[in-house]
Design a protein that fits this description.
single chain; 220 residues; mainly alpha; 2 domains; 72% helix; 0% strand; disordered N terminus
């Protein structure tokens, strides 16, 4: 979708009207398509968030849908993925929007669940969202509980075959520097530490970022 059309939809209030419909419509197809279109609009550099109150309202509705979808026994990845991307994009736009998402009911628990999703790309997308929410979670004193089983879900994302090693390691470093319980869970996870140490000593892709992460964790 071109930037001009995206901005036109925003100024005409089309996105907000669909947001009101999203409050009533819970069809996975509708939620998924709405999130995809919204992400495509607001992820563009030439499409800024002009009305922050409207954006905050939209974030709250999207967050509600994300939490509800994550609670399902069988995760609908086609709906979860665009929802996570949408919220991560809004959180990156402005601190106040990050706080809005972070304060959404059960958001911290939802992130813990998604970090252990059966879908690897969804774990990575969740780390992106958590990275953008880290400061807001701290500011709002959110109780973010992360267990070793959750951090085990990160292991496949930093294996040698992964094409996103440096990005994931950077996310881990930023989140760990802001959320003490996250940092502690990484330090206590021997499997994850061994993997990061292996990357740090490899001299290959991600080795420098891995060394920085180990320094931050105090395990060099």
């Amino acid at each position: 979708m071109c930037g001009a059309l995206g901005m036109c939809l925003v100024h005409l209030g089309v996105v907000c009207k669909f947001r009101d419909l999203l409050r009533k419509e819970t069809s996975p197809w509708f939620v998924s398509q709405f999130a995809r279109v919204t992400f495509n609009i607001f992820s563009r550099e030439d499409c800024s968030v002009a009305d922050h109150e409207e954006a905050a309202s939209l974030c709250r509705v999207l967050a509600e849908r994300l939490v509800a979808c994550a609670r399902l026994n069988e995760q609908d990845v086609s709906t979860l993925t665009p929802l996570v991307r949408c919220l991560a994009t809004f959180a990156a736009h402005q601190d106040s929007l990050a706080s809005t998402v972070a304060q959404s009911p059960d958001m911290a628990e939802c992130l813990g669940v998604l970090l252990n999703s059966t879908y690897l790309h969804l774990r990575r997308e969740c780390l992106w969202l958590l990275n953008n929410l880290a400061a807001a979670l701290v500011w709002n004193e959110m109780n973010f509980n992360l267990t070793i089983s959750n951090s085990d879900g990160i292991l496949p994302l930093i294996c040698c075959e992964s094409s996103h090693i440096e990005t994931v390691l950077s996310f881990l470093g930023n989140i760990a520097s802001r959320i003490p319980v996250f940092r502690e869970s990484l330090v206590e996870n021997s499997n994850l530490l061994d993997q990061v140490k292996s990357l740090a000593s490899s001299g290959g892709k991600g080795s420098t970022v891995a060394q920085n992460l180990l320094t931050l964790l105090g395990t060099m």
